[in-house]
């Protein structure tokens, strides 16, 4: 396996960033500094980055139905519960692919494959993500229209989204809206609804590419098979 691919699979960095580390002389194989991008890593080789050993485990991929109240992180310096508390049976050194807010539930991917993570999270790859949002106010075609045109959030242009109004409660002045987005900026869905005057009260991600939460109760997870992983990779718009 080429050294840049080895580092990407180990979760050190994306393949492009790994190439930068190699060219900067920060990578060694069996104690010898490597600057050749085509250098091969053989079984049993010792690989280090900045003097720290790198282990390339067999790549694994999981789908977790994250409950509210968990941080999408490997650890938390404030002692809060993280999604890793739900994955304690797994021995591989996995981590979340992107994140869901503490108070957001739903579909979260976890893996130890750095290259896959980069492919799934970079905005240019456009993996569809579907959310169900309970919002304050009465959603309609007029106030939701800006979401379909491509908005600017904090100076950044985002892609047009698709929506479907699932429910309206005039007595409680609330609505339930399904929203499909193609990026994954920080707090993006909440910011989009806030920008059109519909603050989010409750949010859940129910689909990621072709993956859904079918058969996975809240707080549980399952391992993805090779076909599902391939479908996600094929959906990504690789430039």
Quick description:
With 239 residues, the chain is of the alpha+beta class. It is built from six helices and 15 strands.
Which parts are unreliable, with pLDDT below 50 for 5 consecutive residues or more?
A: none
Morphology: elongated
Number of helices: 6
Q: If you consult CATH, what is the topology of the largest domain?
A: Alpha-Beta Plaits
Alpha-beta content class: alpha+beta
What radius of gyration results from the CA coordinates? 20 Å
Q: Can you tell me the CATH class of the largest domain?
A: Alpha Beta
CATH H-level homologous superfamily name of the largest domain: Pseudouridine synthase I, catalytic domain, N-terminal subdomain
Portion of residues in beta strands equals: 25-35%
Organism: Lactococcus nasutitermitis
EC number: 5.4.99.-
GO molecular function: isomerase activity
Domain RNA-binding S4: 1-58
What labels would you give this structure?
Structural Genomics Hypothetical 15.5 Kd Protein In mrcA-pckA Intergenic Region, Chain A; single chain; alpha+beta; 239 residues; 29% strand; Alpha-Beta Plaits
Structure description:
Keywords: Isomerase, RNA-binding. Pfam families: PseudoU_synth_2 (PF00849), S4 (PF01479). Belongs to the pseudouridine synthase RsuA family. The strands form 3 sheets. Strands 5, 6, 7, 8, 11, 12, 13, 14 and 15 form a 9-stranded mixed beta sheet that branches. Strands 2-1-3-4 form a 4-stranded antiparallel beta sheet. Strands 9-10 form a two-stranded antiparallel sheet. The chain is elongated. The protein contains 6 helices and 15 strands. It is α+β, with helices and mostly antiparallel strands and 239 residues long. The model has no long low-confidence stretch (mean pLDDT 91).
């Amino acid at each position: 396996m080429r050294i840049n691919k080895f580092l990407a699979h180990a979760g050190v960095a994306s393949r492009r960033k790994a190439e930068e580390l190699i060219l900067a002389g920060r990578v060694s194989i069996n104690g010898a500094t490597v600057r050749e991008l085509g250098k091969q890593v053989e079984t049993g080789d010792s690989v280090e980055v900045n003097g720290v050993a790198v282990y390339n485990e067999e790549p694994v991929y999981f789908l977790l139905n994250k409950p509210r109240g968990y941080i999408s992180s490997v650890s938390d310096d404030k002692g809060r519960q993280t999604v890793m508390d739900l994955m304690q049976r797994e021995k591989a050194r996995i981590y979340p692919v992107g994140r869901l807010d503490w108070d957001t539930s739903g579909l979260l991917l976890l893996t130890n494959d750095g290259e896959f993570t980069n492919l799934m999270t970079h905005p240019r790859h456009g993996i569809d993500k579907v959310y169900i949002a309970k919002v304050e106010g009465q959603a309609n075609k007029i106030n939701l229209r800006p979401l379909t045109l491509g908005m600017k959030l904090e100076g950044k242009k985002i892609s047009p989204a698709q929506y479907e109004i699932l429910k309206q409660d005039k007595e409680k002045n609330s609505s339930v809206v399904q929203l499909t987005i193609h990026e994954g900026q920080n707090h993006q869905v909440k910011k989009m609804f806030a920008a059109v005057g519909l603050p989010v009260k409750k949010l859940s991600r129910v689909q990621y590419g072709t993956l859904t939460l079918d058969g996975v109760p809240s707080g549980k997870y399952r391992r993805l098979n090779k076909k599902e992983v391939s479908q996600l990779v094929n959906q990504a718009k690789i430039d």
